[in-house]
Amino acid sequence: MVKGGTSILSENIWKDALKYFAGGVNSPVRAAVKPSPFYSLSGKGAYIYTEDNKRYIDYVLGYGPLILGHENEYVKNKVIEQIEKGWIFGTPSKSEVELAKKITSHMNSVEKIRFVNSGTEATMNAIRLARGFTKREKILKFNGNYHGAHDYALIDAGSAATEFGVPDSEGIPKEVLNTVVICEYNDLNCVEKKLKTEEIAGVIVEPVMGNMGVVPPNENFLKGLRELTRTYNSLLIFDEVITGFRLSLAGAQGYYGVSADITTLGKIIGGGFPIGAIGGKREIIDMFTPSGKVFNAGTFNANPVSMTAGLATIEVLERENVIEKTVSVAKSIAEELDNIPVPHVINRVQNMFQIFFGVSKVTNATEAKKANKDQYIKFHINMLNNGVFIPPSQYESIFTSLAHYDDYVINETIDAIKKSRSGI
């Protein structure tokens, strides 16, 4: 097993993939690895192993879900126990109630939950729910905030949408565009102006932007959103698909001390299996069918395997001080990145961070787009050649996991950074 180098087998698989998939992939960011993506064979702890017999320290972690690292033994054993009983029934299972109890015990703003299958489904239904509850049609979102791949979210979106030059996807009806109002992240003046002059059902926000690199909220930005939405009778929607159970056991809401009306969750609460959730006050969530008139249904909603994996993951988070350990690792790695001798800025919130080259600050999407993306890609390639996998896109987050809490892993990463900083 070697750390880096060329990927002949993956290159051959890539040639086949180009024949069968648009752009060779089934999610755009996977094509950002140049000159072609490697193909993963397995993962264990902090490491990901490829079809080419390469090993990388993994700081992508499935783009966030694997806060315990790959193939955590406790989660794996719980999932195996469930699979041996069955993996879909079309009826409720006890595990969905147990996971709901666990989530609501940590997130005070979440009294009831609807489980779905992805972050995209969660935000799509949260927007529908806000419109149904308020009887208003417009939603306010922020430039560069990514809320999944549905029509109402793909307007000035972040992440892969920006990476591939399509922040506004084709195929979205003008009527949809006219129901979405945009402000710059961290700009409360814009929010207040829009809420004053337009009938806004809800304001949806990534409390920490995780799909434009990492961009933290300015002081009082989130609290300002809370006050303004209450003043103008709009709902505040926190998209915590990334930050939920990552920044704290109470998510960004616990970390920043701000409560939302509706919360979307995903990634970590599924333990690495497909998951999404919409949570909030009883009177809002009860608008969902069958108790209300906002429709949602899904064959795989509350799939028992995802429920089991999510519950097991949170149990480990509770008993092993996982968040504190992942923050410690992130701090060490970010400090070493800060020694890179070219102009840059590093944004870090707890255990998620990103480096932006050629700029002195990044507080919103407009500033993030000014960063030198070519330098970042060179750095990514250098890190890959030195055995470390960081996101291939400037507009994603570097994540740490419990499995990275190991001196050998940290020292190997720091050594890779030192070797990778030349030539960028």
TrEMBL record:
Annotated localization: Cytoplasm
A Pfam family it matches: Aminotran_3
Residues annotated with N6-(pyridoxal phosphate)lysine modification: K267
GO BP term, example: protoporphyrinogen IX biosynthetic process
Cofactor(s) listed: pyridoxal 5'-phosphate
UniProt pathway annotation: Porphyrin-containing compound metabolism; protoporphyrin-IX biosynthesis; 5-aminolevulinate from L-glutamyl-tRNA(Glu): step 2/2
PROSITE patterns found in the cross-reference section: AA_TRANSFER_CLASS_3 (PS00600)
Enzyme class: isomerase
EC number(s) recorded for this UniProt protein: 5.4.3.8
MF terms in GO: glutamate-1-semialdehyde 2,1-aminomutase activity; pyridoxal phosphate binding; transaminase activity
Family per similarity comment: Belongs to the class-III pyridoxal-phosphate-dependent aminotransferase family. HemL subfamily.
Protein name: Glutamate-1-semialdehyde 2,1-aminomutase
Source organism: Acidianus manzaensis
